[in-house]
Amino acid sequence: MSEKQIRKTRLYDRDQVIQLKNPENPRRKGSNRAAIFEVLQDGMTVHEFLTLAAEWNGGAKDLQILVESGHVAIEDSAPPVADAAGKPDPHAFVQGGA
Prior knowledge:
- Mean pLDDT is about 80; it is low at about 95-98.
- This protein is about 30% helix and about 15% strand.
- It is α+β, with helices and mostly antiparallel strands.
- It has 4 helices and 4 strands, in the order H-E-H-H-H-E-E-E.
């Protein structure tokens, strides 16, 4: 999947965050969909997921199937990071994934 195709995703905004609800892989072991599920990490962005899933010809549709099956949820944005004093910094966001 090219960068242009990733940017055209209509189902989810690239900055939305994936929340893993059920870590058990629902797909048949050894399949492309199982490999796609394995790259999922709690807190990663939709863009990060699409970039990694592209290696197995995955995309937004795979994410949509996982949302509909209840294995993941999509949140609007990453939670704010606290500053040194412990107060939330509204201008900083956590990047999930790596």
